[in-house]
Design a protein that fits this description.
heterodimer; A: 243 residues; alpha+beta; 3-stranded mixed β-sheet; B: 325 residues; Formate dehydrogenase/DMSO reductase fold; two-stranded antiparallel sheet; binds iron/sulfur cluster
Chain lengths: 243, 325
């Protein structure tokens, strides 16, 4: 079984919103478009986004840390949003685990958005159907694109490479290895939704230098207490043999 | 959650319709075993069922205002295996059909007695339809309640009390309406319905207060720590990623002040329970239709407030992600 997912490294995300804008750009003109924008230049701009970047402050001044936190549909392995849909418009694909909405079936009842604890589903106020991240399903299988570009738009856009994309069921894939080795975790594990997307925590790389590393205790020269011999005044072996 | 008026009207209106139909069923089954005098088919059961049907239709119409794409509503019947909403969409028309058949049969007098027992109990054809309708009524209460009760992370709703309250409150309002209706159309049944209305309303008071107490003591399972997966006692959101609001800020917050929330609770507790009961008993005592109907209307307005509060009180975990602009 395949379960495609994103792994988001909070350690390197700088909160630049490049993933947000490239997501909107790709998807508003892609097969899941368009994505409504009301008053884009007005007082209260609002509209549909599949991906949002939020910012949190951890700790109290002066010992605070800023965390930028991108959030989109997590493509849960046990998605509570799917069984509640009365029309079957919401479904999870067998072949790659992507959770999608069929816009031609959706009646816009909003029930699935109530059933997602993460607030990942947003109804499109113009088309009146439910929308959410598709993992760029119209792009990752597109053979007219070069292989290296068959990735979600957000992954390609991220300037710090904070977003990895791959199959989390394949234990040797880049994403699986990263999750295992870098402490990847899921959001709100308490609801048993088993999100496929994982997050990598903030990690501090600290350097520890011990005293004995500055002063080499086992320096062989020190041990024998004898420095190299000084230059000699008289003729050397070389002098007498080099003729 | 943001209380949507379409859903408030849907649930309260079908509740009245269901309760009214249950009242007719109760009346007819009592009279079948001769515990109550039998009533005129057209005047009482026929018109009564039509009133119940009108409330059900009203609820159905209200529900369409909730949909973004009402023209595709028929699709909602397809996922009955997993979705309580889908089950509701199936049971509601079945109930409406049964109530309609019941009304027509009474109206046209198609009500042959199938058999009579030695003690004089009669099994009428309409009673069979009414029994099916009663089953559909309860099924509909369960579906409606389960739509909310099945969402486990909406902890305020995730309780059997949700289903019980929907059932009792809907039934109570239907019985109060039946009391007012019988004052003119079946005066002998007025007291019978009045007493049942009182019993059901008091039962509903107990279970609704139980759910208020339960919700007051709830501890949210999700916290901002589990939401973003950082272990630190002090985490403050500094930006939600946009400034003009979104569906997430509009649909999931009640946007009500604390004062409004508090007062709404007392308003509904007053309007649904004690006030209609006082009006009901005064009305029965004076045999006054105006008082009896005002008991129903007061209780219905109270139920609108109750449903508003039911939605407004539910705290969706996604709100953790939208704490500050
Ligand atoms: S994140 Fe929400 S919308 Fe996405 S699969 Fe999970 S429950 Fe469904
Ligand atoms: S809004 Fe659409 S996708 Fe969501 S539950 Fe309703 S019909 Fe299904």
């Amino acid at each position: 079984m395949t379960q495609l997912a994103l792994v988001i490294d909070l350690n390197v995300c700088v909160g630049c919103h490049a993933c947000v804008t490239s997501c909107k750009e790709w998807n508003t003109s892609g097969s899941s478009g368009f994505m409504t924008d009301e008053n884009p230049y007005g007082k209260d701009p609002t509209g549909t986004f599949f991906n949002r970047v939020q910012t949190y402050e951890i700790g109290e001044f002066p010992s605070t840390e800023t965390l930028h936190f991108p959030k989109s549909c997590l493509h849960c392995e046990d998605p509570p949003c799917v069984p509640v849909c009365p029309t079957g418009a919401s479904y999870k694909r067998e072949e790659d685990g992507i959770v999608l909405v069929d816009y031609d079936k959706c009646i816009g009842c909003r029930y699935c958005s109530w059933a997602c604890p993460y607030g990942a589903r947003e109804i499109d106020e113009t088309q009146k159907v439910m929308k959410k991240c598709t993992l760029c399903v119209d792009r990752i299988y597109d053979e007219s694109l070069p292989e290296s570009e068959r990735k979600p738009a957000c992954v390609l856009a991220c300037p710090t490479n904070a977003r990895l994309f791959g199959d989390v069921h394949d234990s040797s894939s880049e994403v699986s290895v990263t999750i295992r080795e870098e402490g990847g975790y899921q959001l709100m594990p308490e609801w048993g939704t088993k999100p496929a997307n994982h997050y990598l925590p903030r990690r501090k790389t600290r350097m520890h230098i011990h005293e004995d590393e500055l002063q080499r205790a086992d320096n062989p020269l020190k041990k024998e207490e004898r420095g190299p011999s000084k230059p000699v005044d008289g003729p050397t072996l070389d002098d007498s043999t080099s003729w | 959650m943001h209380p949507a008026f379409s859903v408030i009207f849907l649930t309260t209106l079908i509740g009245v319709g269901q309760g009214m139909f249950l009242a007719l069923f109760t009346g007819q089954s009592y009279s079948a075993v001769e515990l109550l005098p039998s009533q005129d088919s057209t005047q009482f059961y026929g018109y009564g069922a039509i009133i119940a049907l009108l409330f059900l239709i009203g609820g159905l119409i209200a529900s369409f205002f909730h949909l973004g794409r009402p023209e595709r509503a028929w699709r909602a019947a397809s996922q009955w295996r997993t979705s309580w909403l889908s089950r509701e969409v199936i049971v509601l028309p079945i109930l409406m059909f049964l109530v309609f058949v019941y009304a027509v049969m009474h109206y046209l007098g198609w009500d042959s007695v199938l058999f009579t027992s030695e003690t004089g109990a009669r099994l009428q054809l309409t009673l069979i339809v009414a029994t099916l309708g009663m089953l559909a009524t309860f099924a509909l209460f369960i579906c409606t309640g389960m739509i909310y009760a099945c969402l486990k992370f909406l902890q305020e709703w995730h309780s059997p009390l949700t289903v019980i309250n929907y059932t009792l409150l809907g039934t109570a309002s239907g019985f109060v309406l039946a009391t007012a209706f019988s004052q003119h159309n079946a005066p002998e049944l007025m007291r019978f319905y009045g007493i049942w209305s009182t019993i059901i309303t008091v039962a509903a008071l107990i279970t609704r207060v139980a759910s208020l107490i339960r919700n007051a003591n709830l501890k949210s399972k999700s916290t901002v720590q589990t939401a973003i997966g950082v272990r630190h006692n002090t985490i403050k959101q500094k930006a939600m990623g946009f400034m003009g609001g979104s569906v997430n800020t509009r649909d999931f917050f009640n946007h009500a002040s604390l004062v409004l929330m508090k007062s709404m609770k007392w308003i509904f507790l007053l309007l649904v329970f004690p006030l209609p009961l006082v009006l009901l008993w005064l009305g029965m005592h004076e045999n006054n239709a105006t008082l009896l109907f005002s008991a129903f209307i007061v209780q219905y307005i109270g139920l609108l407030a109750e449903r508003w509060y039911f939605f407004a009180q539910a705290n969706h975990p996604q709100n953790l992600y939208y704490q500050t602009v």
